[in-house]
Design goal:
Shape: globular
Strand content: 15-25%
Oligomer: single chain
Structural class: alpha/beta
Distance between the termini: 18 Å
């Protein structure tokens, strides 16, 4: 048990932060829960696999295949995700498969696919180096996506102007020509005001709109009430700054509109994404080199997991389950009948746990016990399962709840395969070191479970898995391992083995021939809907969450390594709020929401405005930030509103601190 750190002097505590952050042990042998003690104990592979399959078999026999859920891994290879979703659909017989894509960028996928038919970013990273205008909306890319931000810096050095739209004046915003510090949850009013100004100034790309889009008149009427002055009152952004952004974006020859979780992690995240896509359609900033839409995805293979079908509504290659010819193709390839309906997404799986409808979960490489909103509720739901199998490289908090724990390989260095980044680039991953102890390849573990459940799959290696995927996914057909190595990665779509497609998507929208141009891209009128967790006298501070440069997600991987930048978890307040609550830097305060309460030291951050606080999810064993966040979910994508919780700050009496 962690000792009470409140007893330690502040200075000593700061010096020891790195050492005191919990380090999760690497899994080197299988574990099963002992029937007598109730504790996890070491087991042989045979015992662990027998226990795992027996639990799955018992639950599905008693309650049907839809009582099972698969949580696949956004950090594992494409090949693993392909086999995991195939296990779910073929061996178990359900479409209940998802990953942490649901926690972050599912609204991006939903919004982009609704407009363009595919859920990937429309541009390549290199294009941001050659563009004229960069809009970073809800994205502190310098901290959250540092590799991409190097491309952004090259673009700025090449003459691009950058605008930052963010409630905080972040490290990214410091590089911007203009920072638009909007109130949390007012992205749609701001986007509508930008759109209205573009229309009224006569800067809309009428030729593109008439040729390649639909629904413009309805959109124009929808944004009409959002004048610059009205938007200023709602968003807190000065009218002149809104006008400046609108004119800069509309008049740029090429423009990149980029966003991160500041747009998607809201109860209306998909609507936020559609509001931004509307601006690209209004100006023609899509389907051309240097002009596009770029959702920046944080995990190394969160794009690939969805591409491989590890989501409840799409088969590999992002092919719709509800399309009968598509479904028939996979049924022939897999010799199975696929359910003609969407499965449960991650959010719906947790709700089904609550209702007693989802009773068994196979969790590969995910840590929902700490990554989900309202963590106390999430843990309670996981504990209610009849059977939980966790396959991972560390003994995470989720693994500690499992009935069976299976030690796997680290995808980035202990296995062969591919991953897909957020510019849709598929790249090879090569085995560099041997896994420790008895750890096994993810695919080998899944295939052995499948064999014990009556499906004898034999893959000689990751390339054989990849070739099976290529045979059913036209967008990946042209990507042989040899070609991926030759070109150092290839972006999808790549339907042919003898040519490469442009680095950007949807160039068809600029074709003069209507047949080649294809379906029109629809505008999506969306309405402003404020955050669910309202601030009031009892909870007057708006808490938003995000990432820091030195740490990764829930800290399971990054916590084991020291960083000179790491300072542990703080609640960040602006100087005015610190003075208002009479608290000083490093002073420990109680942070309370309508769901939970934590104690955290104060960090005074001038980049915040009065009424706004900031915390991360990186140190849940030290300060469980997600116990404060709200499970208010986007009805389309299922993503929770991590970015907008209502909290209060309370001083802790000196006697309590010293007790």
């Amino acid at each position: 048990m962690t000792r009470d750190r409140r007893k330690e002097p502040v200075v000593a505590r700061n010096r020891q932060r790195n050492r005191q952050q919990k380090q999760y042990p690497r899994l080197t042998h299988p574990l099963v829960r002992d029937s007598v003690s109730g504790e996890l104990r070491r087991a042989s592979w045979d015992e662990a696999l027998t226990r795992a399959t027996a639990g799955f078999r018992a639950v599905t026999a008693a309650h049907g295949p839809d009582a099972f859920g698969m949580l696949s891994c956004a950090r594992a290879t494409n090949e693993m995700n392909y086999v995991a979703q195939k296990f779910t659909r073929v061996v178990i017989g359900t479409n209940n498969v998802d990953s942490c894509n649901r926690t972050c960028h599912a609204p991006s996928v939903a919004g982009l696919s609704a407009v363009f038919g595919s859920g990937g970013g429309t541009s390549s990273y290199g294009e941001v180096e050659d563009t004229d205008l960069i809009v970073m909306w809800g994205s502190n890319a310098r901290f959250a996506h540092p590799i991409f931000f190097h491309h952004v810096l090259k673009g700025i050095r090449n003459g691009a102007r950058m605008y930052a739209v963010d409630p905080r004046r972040t490290s990214t915003a410091e590089w911007a020509e203009s920072w638009l510090g909007l109130n949390v949850g007012t992205d749609i009013p701001l986007a509508h005001a930008v759109g209205r100004e573009i229309i009224h100034a006569g800067l809309a790309n009428r030729a593109f709109i008439e040729r390649s889009t639909s629904g413009f008149e309805e959109y124009a009427a929808h944004v009409e009430p959002w004048t610059l002055s009205v938007a200023e009152q709602v968003t807190g952004v000065p009218a002149d700054a809104i006008r400046d952004l609108a004119h800069a974006y509309a008049t740029a020859e090429r423009a990149q509109l980029c966003w991160t979780l500041g747009i998607t992690e809201h109860h209306n995240g998909t609507d936020n994404v559609r509001a931004l896509i509307n601006l690209s359609l209004l100006t023609g900033h899509v389907g051309r080199y240097g002009s596009g839409l770029q959702p920046l995805r944080g995990q190394n293979n969160v794009q690939g997991g969805g591409d491989m079908g590890a989501i409840p509504n799409r088969l590999p290659g992002f092919q719709d389950i509800l399309d009968p010819p598509i479904r028939a193709k996979f049924e022939r390839a897999w010799d199975v009948v696929i359910q003609p309906r969407y499965g449960l997404n991650l959010t719906e799986m947790f709700e089904a746990m609550e209702a007693g409808e989802l009773r068994a979960v196979y969790c590969i490489g995910e840590n929902p016990a700490q990554s989900e909103a309202d963590t106390e509720q999430a843990v309670r739901r996981l504990e209610s399962l009849e059977h939980l199998v966790v396959q991972d490289i560390f003994l995470t908090k989720t693994a500690e709840l499992a009935d069976v724990v299976l030690p796997a390989t680290a995808a980035w260095c202990e296995t062969e395969g591919t991953t897909t980044n957020s510019e849709r680039r598929v790249q090879r991953v090569r085995k560099a070191v041997e896994p420790p102890g008895e750890a096994r390849e993810d695919i080998d573990i899944i295939c052995e479970l499948a064999r014990r459940l009556g499906h004898d799959w034999k893959f000689e290696g990751s390339e054989e898995v990849w070739n099976e995927l290529r045979a059913v996914s036209p967008d990946h057909f042209g990507m042989t391992y040899d070609r991926l190595e030759e070109h150092q990665g290839i972006q999808w779509p790549c339907p042919s083995t003898d040519r490469l497609e442009p680095t950007y998507l949807h160039g068809r929208l600029w074709e003069s021939d209507s047949e080649r141009r294809g379906a029109r891209a629809p505008f999506g009128p969306v309405k402003h809907d404020p955050p669910v967790d309202l601030t009031d006298d009892a909870f007057p501070i708006r808490l938003t969450t995000g990432r820091r440069l030195d740490s990764y997600n829930t800290g399971v991987q990054s916590g084991g390594f020291a960083s000179p930048l790491r300072r542990g978890e703080y609640v960040e307040l602006c100087p005015e709020d610190a003075a208002r609550y009479r608290v000083e830097a490093e002073e420990r305060v109680r942070v309370t929401s309508r769901r939970g309460s934590v104690v955290a030291p104060v960090w005074i951050e001038p980049g915040l405005r009065p009424g706004l606080a900031f915390m991360t999810m990186h140190f849940p064993d030290e300060v469980d930030t997600n116990s404060l966040t709200i499970e208010a979910n986007c009805p389309i994508a299922g993503t929770a509103e991590f970015k907008a919780s209502a909290i209060r700050i309370e001083k802790i009496p000196v006697t309590a601190v010293r007790s």
